[in-house]
Amino acid sequence: xxxxxxxxxxxxxxxxxxxxxxxxxxxxxxxxxxxxxxxxxxxxxxxxxxxxxxxxxxxxxxxxxxxxxxxxxxxxxxxxxxxxxxxxxxxxxxxxxxxxxxxxxxxxxxxxxxxxxxxxxxxxxxxxxxxxxxxxxxxxxxxxxxxxxxxxxxxxxxxxxxxxxxxxxxxxxxxxxxxxxxxxxxxxxxxxxxxxxxxxxxxxxxxxxxxxxxxxxxxxxxxxxxxxxxxxxxxxxxxxxxxxxxxxxxxxxxxxxxxxxxxxxxxxxxxxxxxxxxxxxxxxxxxxxxxxxxxxxxxxxxxxxxxxxxxxxxxxxxxxxxxxxxxxxxxxxxxxxxxxxxxxxxxxxxxxxxxxxxxxxxxxxxxxxxxxxxxxxxxxxxxxxxxxxxxxxxxxxxxxxxxxxxxxxxxxxxxxxxxxxxxxxxxxxxxxxxxxxxxxxxxxxxxxxxxxxxxxxxxxxxxxxxxxxxxxxxxxxxxxxxxxxxxxxxxx
Length: 492
Prior knowledge:
- This protein is α+β, with helices and mostly antiparallel strands.
- It contains ten helices and 27 strands.
- The chain is globular.
């Protein structure tokens, strides 16, 4: 007896900001599906106008976006911190959760069309390690809305590390590895210890950091502005529709130039009739491109220093750097890593565009108990963001700081700030700012039935517990009122 990994596969989906990919586990390891154009990735783009019966998703939607950008959405992953916001497309409105579900469903259906009798055992979907609990929860909701049988969610750097561990399983020693994950929309930096024992492969996260507003989309926009400036185009005399089409066309040229400049020192951009009677013909060097995005590299430099400091490691302690995400191909990334770590430690044998989907399929196969290993996979995580509650003066009271090894717990005593209050809303936040207005609210615990006492006379104990699966349970205890309330939130 053996599991049918073709008709009933365990699937992994990398839901990317700009591109997505899907893979399944096979007896020989992970295999990435191709679409009908023999491409391994799908554009994470949705296009819709009033002439359509349903939205268009993927690479064709991306091509539509060039000529009609007002009816397209690119980078919806960056909007997952507010799953209820309305995004107008055509004559309809969609939430980020709905749009993400369309992308997930489209990717899944392409895989489904490859195999008669396709009936997957389940799917693992990836999220950035630096995502907040709310962003991760909204991603899981999008997968559910797409009709996927969810086996779990895994952070992208861990998925990439799993792909690396599978490819190198027979040859790797115990190592300290840095995953440098620079995709279309987010930057994740994770340091973990890989322990390869006869009966277990352990991924022990030591420190993490990042920025969910830093990635290839930002580089594209900066390069678009540079091309427009060098071409001397003036949009003021043209209609809004003409301006949108022109900017979309320049953006497409910027993406092409970015890819060329990752391999060449120079490129020429020629775009006839970018506006009625006007065209672009400009030269662009790699040096000019790198200069226009230099401030993002300064951010990455600071994040590298911060994560190394949080891990209590020096650059000499890092044994290997795994580059993940399409934007990690930019040559200046290698310069940054050479300066901060060591050029000889940068590893590139796994595909940066596909390894996250591959790793997600590995995890799906592990959860479904179909990997033919004698080894157990153990993932030891750490908190990516501080967790705490909001105070009445707007400050953020931290119970569990960022980078705390999980499982962990902490208790803090609070009190009422109003006389004779019988109920209380405890707002739970995640973030790094001292003030709640700059952090992410991830839930509210409503406490009722408090004894009427003057302000400051009721002690309220709040305990946060985070388990290995990144679920936080919050317990609120008020002894005099005989209150003990517990609620749970998912961080991944």
